[in-house]
Amino acid sequence: MRILSKLRAGIAITIVAILSAVMFVDMNEAHAEYGDVVINNYSDAAGMRPVVFPHWFHRIRFRCKVCHADLGFKFQAGGNEINMVKIIDGQFCGACHNGDIAWSVENCNLCHSGTPKTPTQVHESTVQKLVQPTGAPKK
To answer: DSSP class of residue 137?
Structure first.
C-alpha cells in the first residue's frame, strides 16, 4: 500500500511539472512556409498576431470542396470576412475548430502565431513573384 501511495505521488508530481513547463513556454512567432495563408484582415487592428493557416496541412486531410464549397471559403487570400464572432458561431474555421473535431478557439496562439504587420497573403505564392511583361517579345 505504501509503495502504491509513493507511486501515485510521483506520478502527480511529474504531471504537475509537465503542465507547469507547458504553461510557461514562450510562444514564438511562427514563420509561414510555402503555401501557408497569412490572414491579417483584422488581427493587427485588434492587437493580435496574424493567423498562419497551414493550407497544405489541411489539404492532405480534406478535399478542396470541404472548405471551399461546404464551408464557403473563397479561393482568394483575404476574400473572406472572417472574424472571431463568426468562428465562435461555427462559421469558417469554427465549423471544425469547435473542441470536438479540432482544438477550440480558446487556444489563441495556435492560430494567431504570425509576425505582426504581415499582410494577408498566400506565403511565397508564385503569383506574388510574377513580373508584368514590359513589351512585345523581340524577334
So the answer is: P
- Contact 78/41 with Cβ under 8 angstroms? yes
Calpha distance 74→83 (Å, rounded): 15
pTM for the full predicted model:
0.66
Q: Which residues contact 77 (CB under 8 A, 6 or more apart)?
A: 37, 38, 39, 120, 121, 122
What secondary structure letter does DSSP report for 61? T
The CATH class that applies to domain 28-126 reads alpha beta
- The DSSP element (H or E) to which 52 belongs, if any, is strand 51-53
Half-sphere exposure of 1 (CA within 13 A, CB side): 0
Separation of alpha carbons 57 and 33, rounded Å: 11
pLDDT tens, residue by residue, 20-54 = 554 444 456 666 777 889 999 999 999 999 999 99
Question: What does each C-alpha distance from 128 to 54, 88, 123 come to in angstroms?
Answer: 18, 32, 9
Domain-by-domain residue ranges, the chain? 28-126
To the nearest 10°, report the CA torsion of 73, 103, 33, 74. 0
